[in-house]
Amino acid sequence: MTPGNRAAGDPGDPPAAPASLADRYCDLVDRLNSRVGRLWALAIFGVTFAVIYEVVARGVFGRATLWSNETTIYLSAVAYLIGGGYALAHRRHVRIDLVYDLLSPGARALLDCFTFLFFLLYIGALIWVGTTMGWTSFQQGEGTGTPWNPPIWPVKFAIPIAAALLLLQGVANLLRDLGLARSQSRVA
Description:
Blueprint: H1 21-41, H2 43-59, H3 68-89, H4 97-100, H5 105-140, H6 153-177
């Protein structure tokens, strides 16, 4: 084989540079958020099943369920919350690129650091308030007050968990934006 069509990993290839600690952190966080996001995306199948079951039970048999509506709301809420880290890992959150792209790389880095402070305040509040709400709900055995009355604390605890995943991903993205880690994720 000639050097131009040699397979990757051939003995003649130069050794790959070892991944830095920042690269390994970013890859780990990307992998975590991607896997958790994909796992919770499957909850939409549960939502679909609950809706179809309710429609058939009510429309065909004239017997509505007690659990379908709240199951749909719970699963959708948690999938939405947990999906935030996945969206941030894949750079799917809204950003005003029109203005951002006009800035020099140095100005972008300054803007990233400045806006990251607001991100930290927001995430810190979500973690603090969400944990407090979840723990209080758990201690009180809080339910929804409906005839089915499922516990509400699992959904409330999803708030600080989702915020922690967002925080980890936000740090990873900032490391990349500042050039302290590889700009591209190795996680699909």
